[in-house]
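hey
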């Protein structure tokens, strides 16, 4: 007898799983419920679409509903929100957002891939016209529509200085707007150590973007349309406000179904993406991610992880055998002309785990200094004091950042010692590198720390 697969969520993890199940089970019934109206699109590309660097939202869509249905024979229900999971009877109930009718569907196997949702604090005025988050293509389209139709929009306030907040600051800067960033923290992008994050603030201010840290937003003011943002330290005029203070896993229906939750209320899964309830799996931004350095479940929602977890869930659901090996928290971003990347643990995380650690920080160049346009590169490494195992790395500069962070991510994944970085056979030619790569230079400096 053929199994029936139901998937809640039609973005990265959900559709990766659906296509993988189809490859392994050519005749099985696969049903997907998606709350939105668009499937499988590149959320990470949204700021660049707003900036005008990506010409059309269609460029961000991997496959359409019609393509999934025609090529993979997957039944897609768009604009359907699953409101109930009944593990005992193995049914789900979905509400049509078009006509409010309910659809009840049985399953043999269920995958929850409901993703994450933007956090909107309970400030007065978040419902004003001109206030939005950025999570979906309709969000981005709404922002571009406002910019096109309202020429009076000149001052944009971004609340939150994380990845999306900084990328949106660049997007509006490229659109010629006055940009103000407000963050309650004492630094931008908390995944970096303060002295590394300071480079982002310097770059933003150098290019005319204002940054206000350690300010708590109190309310948004306006008469129908937003006009200002009020903090504990002042009031900022605003023609548009982007709220970007983080995301949380969308797991309310899972919790109601008795599914165990983990860090930050993400669905706890094992290495096969199984939950604590038989025949129910979870993957992506709604699920936990095992951290190899912390050696515990974590929640670091990234597109790369969602796609991997979806494929692994699909393999196991389809009768195969695959395991999610874990993450080290690798991420890279662009802040105007500056590049920033990190992997493994920062100092705050190492302290929270009571690890006795050391750090080394160097300034270098991204290729041979005598070759033209050698850009400054800053590298910080965190390593165990006792056995010198590499724990984390941060790289900031104007070129060559991605190359170095990927080397460090590989080294951390496989438990290398900081001194072993010197033994790596890394590529060299003057336009690309020095004879000693900057990560190896950092390793050599670390030799003196014993």
């Amino acid at each position: 007898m053929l199994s029936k697969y139901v998937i809640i969520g039609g973005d990265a993890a959900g559709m990766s799983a659906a296509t993988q199940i189809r490859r392994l089970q050519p005749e099985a019934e696969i049903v997907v419920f998606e709350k939105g109206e668009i499937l499988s699109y590149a959320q990470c590309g949204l700021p660049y679409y707003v900036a005008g660097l990506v010409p059309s939202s269609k460029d961000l869509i991997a496959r359409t509903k019609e393509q999934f249905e025609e090529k993979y024979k997957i039944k897609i229900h768009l604009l359907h929100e699953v409101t109930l999971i009944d593990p005992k009877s193995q049914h789900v109930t979905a509400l049509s957002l078009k006509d409010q009718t309910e659809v009840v569907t049985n399953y043999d196997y269920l995958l929850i891939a409901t993703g994450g949702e933007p956090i909107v604090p309970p400030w007065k005025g978040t419902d004003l016209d001109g206030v939005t988050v950025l999570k979906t293509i309709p969000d981005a389209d709404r922002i571009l529509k406002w910019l096109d139709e309202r020429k009076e929009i000149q001052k944009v306030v971004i609340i939150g200085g994380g990845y999306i907040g900084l990328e949106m600051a660049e997007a509006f800067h490229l659109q010629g707007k006055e940009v103000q960033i407000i963050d309650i923290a004492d630094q931008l992008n908390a995944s970096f150590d303060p002295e590394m994050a300071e480079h982002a603030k310097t770059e933003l201010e150098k290019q005319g973007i204002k940054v206000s840290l350690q300010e708590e937003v109190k309310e948004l003011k306006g008469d129908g349309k937003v006009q200002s943002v009020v903090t504990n330290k002042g009031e900022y005029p605003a023609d548009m406000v982007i709220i970007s203070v983080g995301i949380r896993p969308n797991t309310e229906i899972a919790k109601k179904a008795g599914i165990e939750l983990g860090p930050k209320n993400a669905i706890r899964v094992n290495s096969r993406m199984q939950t604590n309830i038989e025949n129910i799996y979870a993957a992506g931004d709604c699920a936990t991610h095992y951290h190899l350095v912390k050696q515990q479940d974590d929640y670091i929602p990234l597109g790369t992880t969602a796609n991997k977890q979806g494929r692994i869930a699909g393999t196991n659901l389809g009768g195969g055998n695959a395991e999610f090996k874990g993450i080290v928290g690798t991420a890279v971003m662009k802040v105007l002309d500056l590049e920033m990347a990190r992997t493994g643990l920062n100092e705050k995380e190492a302290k929270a785990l009571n690890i006795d650690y050391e750090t080394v920080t160097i300034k270098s160049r991204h290729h041979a200094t005598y070759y033209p346009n050698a850009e400054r590169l800053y590298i910080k490494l965190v390593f165990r004091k006792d056995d010198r195992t590499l724990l984390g790395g941060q790289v900031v500069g104007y070129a060559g950042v991605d190359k170095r962070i990927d080397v460090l991510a590989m080294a951390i994944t496989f438990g290398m010692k900081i001194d072993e970085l010197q033994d790596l056979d890394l590529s060299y030619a003057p336009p690309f590198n020095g004879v000693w790569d900057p990560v190896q230079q950092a390793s050599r400096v670390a030799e003196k720390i014993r």
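The mean pLDDT is 96. DSSP finds eleven helices and 25 strands in the chain.
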